[in-house]
Design the sequence.
């Protein structure tokens, strides 16, 4: 599974990236975490606010930091 | 425990908290006087009055801030940039500018998202001028600044700040629109095909909006309280020590050039609204006029160098200069209006 964090350096983007990496390590999830900072790349996902969270190519959230249990559900692929 | 109660009985606990808020707010003067009396400070001394001012103003402004940020948090949960874009779609100049400016106030927005937002708006066919109205209004009308103006100078000043801020956003966007500056947008902007996310619009229940309100309070108040305490301490500290009219000569109403100079100094400076409050407080205390100080504040929070540099990725220089120039001119006019009204 591939988890991408879209954002070019806002404070929330860094927080979200940290959260995702932390969760992946803590629960030993087989996910590949990638930070996308290229604007044109980000825009392709059609989000208006950063950070965006993309799981396997699907936008899950934009402009906010989802709660940990919600992140976990997405990263486990159960929703 | 607080969290649990809020989750279980969101409406009831919010109502109780609000009741507590009212009681506390009405008792502030009493509490401040009691604190001063308890500390055993001599009646009428300079220091005593400074302390009294401080212990009254700090909780007052913090209470107001909590309430307003909470309310704004709830209001913003009804708006999202995606929804705003939909509402602005197909709007013409002028009507579009008015709507975009109003939506700029209530839509959650962070200047770090300025580029994706700009692209998303322009791409979906929203006119350039209308997009700019939104981008100008969003940072310019700031809830923290609103609270401080309301708390320290009363509702008329707060209202005047908000309405003139809106007016600047509407008119500046409209002018950018009629000048037809689209050719100064980087060509790749129109060439990129933005994707469309299938982010479903979730149905949000009211208790979740309440919790959005509390989240906003935690996020903003935890960041901003220190500046407010410093600001009021500065106000209390120099009260009566530095001559009253220290700044009047250079930033008073008499000096006609003070407004443009304040804006020129303010534009390259960057700070959040709370960060410059200590400065604003000190300037006003010492006889700088309200219009001049407000123009300075608007220039600092509404036009910022970092944001302009970010915009360079999508806009060519002539458009950036037009944007900064038109908004700065608007702020200068507002400064003069304030100085005129409050003379």
Sequence:
């Amino acid at each position: 599974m591939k988890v991408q964090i879209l954002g070019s350096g806002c404070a929330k983007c860094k927080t979200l990236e940290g959260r995702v990496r932390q969760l992946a390590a803590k629960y030993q999830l087989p996910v590949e975490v990638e930070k996308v900072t290229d604007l044109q790349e980000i825009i392709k996902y059609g989000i208006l606010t950063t950070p965006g969270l993309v799981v396997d190519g699907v936008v899950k959230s934009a402009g906010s930091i989802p709660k940990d249990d919600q992140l976990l559900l997405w990263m486990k692929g159960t929703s | 425990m607080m969290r649990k109660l809020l989750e279980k009985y969101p409406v009831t606990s919010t109502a109780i908290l609000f009741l507590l808020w009212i009681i506390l707010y009405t008792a502030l003067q009493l509490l401040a006087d009691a604190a001063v009396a308890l500390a055993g400070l001599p009646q009428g001394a300079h220091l005593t009055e400074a302390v009294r001012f401080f212990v009254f103003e700090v909780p007052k402004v913090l209470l107001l801030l909590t309430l307003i940020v909470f309310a704004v948090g709830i209001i913003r949960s009804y708006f999202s940039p995606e929804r705003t874009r939909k509402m602005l779609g197909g709007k013409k100049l002028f009507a579009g500018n008015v709507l975009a400016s109003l939506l700029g106030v209530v839509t959650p927005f962070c200047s770090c998202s300025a580029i994706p937002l700009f692209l998303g708006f322009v791409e979906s066919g929203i006119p350039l001028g209308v997009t700019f109205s939104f981008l100008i209004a969003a940072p310019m009308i700031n809830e923290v600044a609103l609270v401080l103006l309301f708390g320290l100078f009363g509702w008329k000043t707060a209202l005047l700040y908000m309405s003139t801020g809106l007016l600047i956003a509407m008119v500046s966007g409209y002018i950018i629109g009629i000048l037809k500056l689209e050719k100064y947008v980087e060509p790749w902007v129109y060439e990129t095909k933005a994707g469309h996310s299938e982010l479903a619009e979730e149905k949000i229940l009211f208790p979740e909006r309440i919790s959005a309100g509390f989240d906003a309070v935690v996020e903003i108040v935890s960041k901003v309280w220190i500046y407010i305490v410093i600001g009021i301490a500065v106000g209390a500290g120099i009260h009566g020590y530095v001559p009253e009219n220290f700044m009047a000569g250079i930033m008073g109403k008499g000096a006609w050039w003070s407004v443009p100079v304040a804006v020129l100094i303010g534009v390259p400076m960057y700070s959040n609204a709370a960060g410059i409050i200590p400065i604003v407080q000190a300037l006003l205390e010492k006889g700088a006029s309200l219009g001049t100080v407000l123009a300075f504040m608007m220039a600092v929070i509404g036009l910022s160098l970092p944001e302009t540099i970010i915009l360079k990725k999508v806009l060519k220089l002539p458009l950036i200069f037009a944007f900064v120039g038109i908004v700065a001119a608007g702020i200068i006019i507002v400064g003069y209006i304030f100085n005129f009204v409050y003379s």
